[in-house]
Design a protein that fits this description.
Elements: E1 2-7, E2 10-12, E3 18-26, E4 34-39, E5 46-51, E6 58-60, E7 68-73, E8 78-83, E9 92-98, E10 110-111, E11 115-119
Parallel strand pairs: 2-11
Antiparallel strand pairs: 1-3, 3-8, 4-5, 4-9, 5-6, 7-8, 9-10, 9-11
Length: about 120
């Protein structure tokens, strides 16, 4: 079993920055790809970014390219999402995902409880 715990969400003005963190625990040997999804009110969940270990290969949604950066610390099984130049459309619940394929932003196996990001 894998647990994913997100932190770092909050409220920020447009143009500001936030850094999300996701700590994985449990059977972390079973997961490789780690990523982020988001879901805004009344909208479908969408992939944001994913990262594969060792090679550091990443994958981003077009809507966040150039503004968001995903990184990870394999020693602590933690993945980060640095979000810069935030826009109101970035407001959503952000979920950490792990275990899926990079092209799918690592979703499909494990999902955290989410952390809220609000941009005004």
């Amino acid at each position: 079993h894998v647990q994913l715990v997100e932190s770092g969400g909050g409220s920020v003005q447009a143009g500001g920055s936030l850094r999300l963190s996701c700590a994985a625990s449990g059977d972390t040997y079973s997961i490789h790809c780690m990523g982020w999804f988001r879901q805004a009110l009344w909208k479908e969940r969408e992939g944001v970014a994913g990262i594969y270990p060792f090679r550091g290969e990443t994958h981003y949604a077009d809507s966040v390219k150039g503004r968001f950066t995903i990184s990870r610390d394999d020693a602590t099984n933690t993945v980060y999402l640095q979000m810069n130049d935030l826009k109101p459309d970035d407001s959503a619940m952000y979920y950490c995902a792990a275990g899926g394929s990079l092209v799918s932003y690592c979703g499909g196996a494990h999902l955290g409880q989410g952390t809220q990001v609000t941009v005004s």
